[in-house]
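FIELD: query
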Amino acid sequence: MTYSLHPRAEQDVADALDFYSEHAGTVVAERFIEEFERVAKLVVEHPNIGTPTTSGRRAFPLRIFPYSVVYRNLESSILILIVRHQHRKPRR
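FIELD: result
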């Protein structure tokens, strides 16, 4: 099983990387992407690990950063829909 990113999730990751690069430096931005990839691999290995939300979606938090990965199990792959900041109002 593999994972793919919805275009919105791609933009969420890019926005977070830009923020951390600008405000905390390259090392922190790289650590963010490492943590995101760790969680993405974890949900691929254990698709039901996330907390159920709406419409068949699940959410799983990053350990160090205040973000959650919102995904859907498509049986043959994981579709990451959103990489949501936990302390901001949802825009969707």
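FIELD: remark
Residues 26-45 form the longest helix (20 residues).
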